[in-house]
Amino acid sequence: MIRLAVKKLTTIEDARSLLQTAVGVEFGTLPPYLYALYSIPPGTNPEANHLIRSVALQEMIHMCLACNILNALGGNPLIQVQQYPGPLPGDIGPHDTPLTVHLYPFSKDALAQGMAIEEPENPPDYPVKTAALLAEAAPKAVTIGQFYDALDKFLSTLPASAWTPNRNQIVDNQFFPGQLFAVNNYADAHNAITQIVSEGEGTSEGSEYDPLDFQDQPAHYFRFGEIFNERVLTRDPGSKSGYTWGPARLEVTWPPAGRDLADPGLHNFSNEPPAAQAAQAACNAAFTQMIDALQRAVAGVEGALGEAVRFMFDLRMSALHAFTVPLNNGQFAGPAFLYVPNLHGDK
């Protein structure tokens, strides 16, 4: 599980710092989720493909919403590339042991990792738990949902003058209609935080916990859980927890273990066939262009988000191709999500 550090918030600068951490966490989940998604063999696992893709798209929206809040408070969001394997930004983990996030191909390991990242405060007892998921958080170490809750409570105390309307806001009705909106005041920020937490962890009303988000769709933790358990999350009034896994199955065909390389960023591709090297270069180029476009978007450049989405499509096509190019040992490798400075020699 990941646990983020939260100290007492006293200034707007404190809130900006937390929001930058939030931006890093939301973006940092994209590579591991996309690596698992892109490694699904074509023509297989349509349900799992849809579920993982939906989570990845919502993480992109969550990152943009966090940037909108930060911009409204006078901050300047940075899109920072993470290294994998490694911890997510701000993660101190339970008992000072951060979760090491890997780029796993589509597998039970990838889904268990997704559940560990998205785990709510007290996950109901219908998912299968591992020892890592049962550890208690260290003092001042909180879940992503609790992290946002602390931020929301502080933002509610700020005067209206703390907010700058229409400052570098990312608003999009083409790719994310109704989901990505401007933040001009606390009410907007509260709505954004509610959406982020609901889609990630589910909702709660008092002591009642609901694994569904505000659109009555399973939260991220439970979407991954459906794939992991190969069962559809189902309301069950006869169950003490209110839900069960199944009985309806979610059909999953797991690829052969070892077919795809994990953590390609640790692999030396210089000794691999030229086609494999070219595939990695194409992935890195598309990822770099996506990062640059996202940075322009969060800085208020009009049209930059559309560019970022197009580069994400380029990354997808490059990644799908990379997973068809064999390495010397017969394995396949997807994108390492490496940023290439001076890609075009003009920066």
From TrEMBL:
InterPro entries noted in UniProt: Ferritin-like (IPR012347), VioB/RebD_dom (IPR026820)
Record Pfam families: Ferritin-like
Residues of the Iminophenyl-pyruvate dimer synthase domain: 19-228
Cleaved signal peptide residues: none
Identification of the protein by name: Ferritin-like protein
